[in-house]
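Form P-L/3: holo structure prediction, ligand S-adenosylmethionine.
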Amino acid sequence: MGRGEVVNFARLREKMVQEQLLERGIRDSRVIGAFLKVPREKFVPKKMQVYAYEDGPLSIGYGQTISQPYMVALMTELLGLDKRDKVLEIGTGSGYQTAILAELAGEVYSVERIPELAERAQEVLQDLGYANVKIRVGDGTLGWDTYAPYDRIIVTAGAPKVPLPLIEQLAPGGRMVIPVGPRYHQVLKVLEKTSDGEVVEKEDIPCVFVPLIGAEGWQE
Ligand code: SAM
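OUTPUT (holo model):
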């Protein structure tokens, strides 16, 4: 891109939704609507903005990434959100997934272990006017007890196993989406807690996430 050239982000956003989401099978119209609305370029560092709609994860500093648009969409679709849901997100990162959740759910609680990322995400989300999001710095493998139980839980970093506190903080009838497996390749799992507290687990696609680091995750 030449100097002074203006990037049409709205156009790039529509193209991403068409080619990366719709053509790969994302069907939920509410999810598609949220992706058409949330300005992904605001969640990446300035010098990376022209790449914001590319088909992959991007570096956001501190060794962390904003996830690939398709992965964010797939996890969101698997969550099956309702406008009244209370959602817990582990791994705020850039805050992009948080914004998508805030579009589709009632309240979003998000935990991030790196203070600088949490602060930046908080600022962007506030600037964009999301009033239904609370962010906390801490070890998300322990969940966020204060607002539990949650109708939906999403973990956006790769876990060696499903952290027990997250299962405990999931409401009966609730659902959790989490990448689980060895450090460098995981499988996306969908867990459902029945009304009598039993947990039923299904596997979706293979994936690769940065590690979930904490007491119930990987060691640093
Ligand atoms: N969903 C994010 C986005 O759209 O930008 C991507 C998140 S990035 C792939 C994973 C994030 O999880 C990183 O920001 C990382 O610092 C965070 N993380 C790792 N372990 C964590 C833990 N125990 N608690 C909270 N956050 C954690």
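COMMENT: The mean pLDDT is 96.
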